[in-house]
Amino acid sequence: MIQSFTIIEAKQKIAAGEITSKALTEACLERIKKQNGALNAFIQISETALKEAESIDVKRAAGGQELGVLAGIPIAVKANMLAKGLKATAGSRILENYVAPYDATVVERLRAAGAIILGVTNMDEFAMGSSTETSHFGQTHNPWNQTKVPGGSSGGSAAAVAADFVPGAFGSDTGGSIRQPASLCGVVGLKPTYGRVSRYGLMAMASSLDQIGPFARTVEDAALLLQVVEGDDPKDATTVAGGDTTVAELISEDVAGLRIGLPKEYFLEGMDERIRTSVFQAVEVLQQGGADVHEISLPHAEYALAAYYIIMPCESSSNLGRFDGMRYGYAASSGRTLMETYERSRGEGFGSEVKRRIMLGSYALSKGYYDAYYKKALQVRMLIRRDFDEVFKHVDAILTPTSPSVAWNIGEKFDDPLTMYLSDIYTISANLAAIPAMSLPCGFVDGLPVGLQLMGRPFGEETLFRLGKHYQTKTDWHTKRPEKNV
Ligand code: GLN
After folding, report:
1. Residue 65 Cα to ligand 1 middle (Å)
2. 78 is catalytic
């Protein structure tokens, strides 16, 4: 089935003339038509996708023109990234009818590489959540079992790749929003090093934590997508030059001598035994390849969640100040005073999780509390970073589960924010420490995918790719697809 090809397979088949970009795009659109009603992974499909694919085919047939590395490959983007002409709603009512007036840098680079932006994927409102249940545009369902959540906040992108709607997609990750849904949907998800990928044109959630990254079916595809979008961007001052991903096909799969750390704080009593077993089986595979595995300690890990749930709402509350119903998006009928108009637009436009975080953040930043909460959380963040600096003197990568559980029932944690927040326990440290981290499928529990997380040194993505590629050549978890795909 054409739509099940990996990006690299599809590239090869297109180059060999076995399939056209049009056929690939049509196959994806056909699957979306069949299944998206049930999954709600896409919230908008591009009407020009097929034409764009055709024009790439024409260009290719004519020859003589340089075609980009993603020429004719359909790619999806999360609804908080601007893709000119498509809706950028961030999953919120307040941006219900907002159409992107320009391309985010990531989208611009994807298009320059010849990718076809197939559509926009569903997400938790303003990327706040771990289940894609807070979207104004309805719940996304997990392709492995439609009664389960796909994870979040980039649940639409993860589900779209798992369901064979599209071979690759982009998401954003502030505390785990790429890796956790990748884990729950059984695909690869990468949060690059902070500063490696431009956020220009991404709606900011927590600016010191946000990073854009790819979803794919294989580690090599994820590397290829990173290679296309990474690098310095004058429009995002936090980007740094220096990340030059090796051409995906050339990534070494030799892991002999690589040192891997297992943090004892992550493998505590009470952890789901079946997840532990899957993860330790993966450790064995890497050991057999010659990797050296050690126990390590990240002594401040237990404070990460608390620090994150101060820093993130503080930054979010400030970033969301711009949505006032005046400049763009939803505007309530005007009140008697300007303040009342703002209050109505924001009151009606934002959902309850977003309001909860705006309130938490505004509280923690207010006079008298700033030092006690925000400043303290920043200090804890420093300690967490130092833990990682210290550990990376001795190991090349850190291995953990991505999520403490597999996908849960829709509705199960929705009214219990604290339990929902706890599902981010393994992912948030990488954002606080600004390091790269990747999730890849490593087994199943009750028919639902389990994810393995690899964290690396700043700009150490290559090591993660090596380990991941080795793992995927020795195992076949990443080739499994939900039955409904067939
Ligand atoms: N689930 C986390 C949260 O709700 C992470 C979100 C994200 O990475 N965007 O904040």
Report:
1. 42
2. yes
Q: Indicate the Cα dihedral angle 226, 231, 233, 236, nearest 10°.
A: 70
Residue 332 within a domain: no
Cα(287) to centroid of ligand 1, in Å? 32
Ligand 1 pocket mutation, candidates 121, 135, 207, 424, criterion most atoms within 8 A of CB: 424
In a domain, 64, yes or no: yes
Assess whether 198 carries a catalytic annotation: no
Query: How many A from CA of 153 to the centre of ligand 1?
Result: 6
Query: Which structural domain range is residue 166 located in?
Result: 2-257
What is the tens place of the pLDDT at every residue in 305-321?
999 999 999 999 999 99
Q: Which of 1, 364, 436, 24 is nearest to 195 (CA)?
A: 436
**pLDDT per residue over 426-484, tens digit each?**
999 999 999 999 999 999 999 999 999 999 999 999 999 999 999 999 999 999 999 87
Nearest to 57, CA basis, from 7, 20, 97: 20
Q: What is the average pLDDT value for the chain, to the nearest integer? A: 95
Residue 170: beta bridge partners? Answer: 77, 214
Give the tens place of pLDDT for each residue, 215-264.
999 999 999 999 999 999 999 999 987 666 666 777 888 999 999 999 99
Pocket flag, ligand 1, residue 130 (CB < 6 Å): yes
Q: Which two tokens stand for residue 190?
A: 């990468």
Which amino acid type is present at position 111? R
For 408-433, what is the mean pLDDT? 92
Return the CA Rg of the chain.
21
CATH of the domain at 105: 3.90.1300.10
Q: Which of 433, 430, 431, 438 has the alpha carbon at shortest distance from 464? A: 438
Interior/surface letters 460-481, b for 16+ CB within 10 angstroms, e for the rest: bbbbbbbbbbbbbeebebbeeb
Can 333 be counted among the known catalytic residues? Answer: no
Number of domains in the chain: 1
239 occurs within a structural domain: yes
Asked if residue 382 lies in contact with residue 162, where contact means CB atoms within 8 angstroms, the answer is no
Check pocket membership of 174 for ligand 1, CB cut-off 6 A.
yes
The answer to the question of residue 217 being in a domain is yes
Q: Which atom of ligand 1 has the smallest separation from the CA of 312? A: 10
Taking the model in full, what pTM does it have?
A: 0.97
User: Is the CB of residue 146 below 6 angstroms from any atom belonging to ligand 1?
Assistant: no
